[in-house]
């Protein structure tokens, strides 16, 4: 739901700002603005979608682990290795190292978590960003005074939205 809301806000701001800029700036600057805003918005929205999916998968995993372990989620997050367990204090460094090795993540778990950085939607969004930049560069329509600052605008809008307006 929030991704839909932020995309509508981005679209509204894009349409308003592009209309205003159309009246006051050159064609090259407007094209640079449009390409930068749209491609940056696609990257932001793809990242949000990817992050949302990753969190939901992680919550499903935590739910199933918590059912088995019967451990509180907050305790799991604050002390994932059980080092501050009040039942049995660990006094020996060798015992501590053995405990840490026992809780060490496997290569499969690390690979599964790092795959979120290489999600197809996110990679596709960055490809669109790069293709848009090279299109502007090859067509001599690139105006860096508008392109580079505009890349930041969707990120700022998203941060402002989530800090001030998002409920959950």
In words, what does this structure look like?
By secondary structure, this protein is mainly α. It has one domain (2-165). Helices cover 78% and strands 0% of the residues. It contains 7 helices and no strands. It starts with a helix and ends with a helix. The mean pLDDT is 79.
Number of helical segments with 4 or more residues: 7
Mean pLDDT: 79
- What is the element string, with H for helices and E for strands? HHHHHHH
Tell me the domain tally.
Answer: 1
The major pleated sheet works out as: none
**How many β strands by DSSP?**
0
Topology summary:
Elements: H1 2-24, H2 27-69, H3 73-78, H4 93-102, H5 107-114, H6 120-138, H7 144-165
Helix pairs in contact: 1-2, 2-6, 2-7
Structure in a nutshell:
The chain has one domain. Helix content is 78%, strand content 0%. The chain is built from seven helices and no strands.
Question: What attributes does this structure have?
Answer:
168 residues, mainly alpha, elongated, single chain, 7 helices
């Amino acid at each position: 739901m929030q991704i839909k809301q932020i995309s509508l806000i981005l679209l509204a701001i894009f349409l308003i700002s592009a209309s205003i800029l159309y009246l006051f700036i050159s064609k090259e600057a407007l094209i640079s603005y449009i390409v930068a805003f749209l491609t940056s918005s696609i990257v932001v929205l793809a990242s949000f979608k990817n992050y949302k999916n990753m969190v939901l998968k992680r919550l499903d995993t935590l739910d199933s682990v918590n059912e088995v372990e019967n451990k509180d989620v907050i305790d799991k997050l604050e002390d994932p290795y059980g080092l501050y367990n009040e039942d049995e204090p660990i006094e020996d460094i060798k015992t501590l190292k053995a405990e840490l090795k026992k809780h060490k993540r496997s290569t499969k778990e690390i690979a599964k978590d790092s795959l979120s950085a290489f999600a197809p939607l996110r990679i596709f969004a960055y490809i669109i960003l790069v293709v848009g930049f090279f299109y502007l560069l090859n067509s001599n329509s690139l105006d860096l005074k508008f392109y580079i600052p505009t890349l930041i605008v969707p990120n700022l809008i998203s941060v402002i939205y989530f800090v001030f307006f998002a409920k959950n």
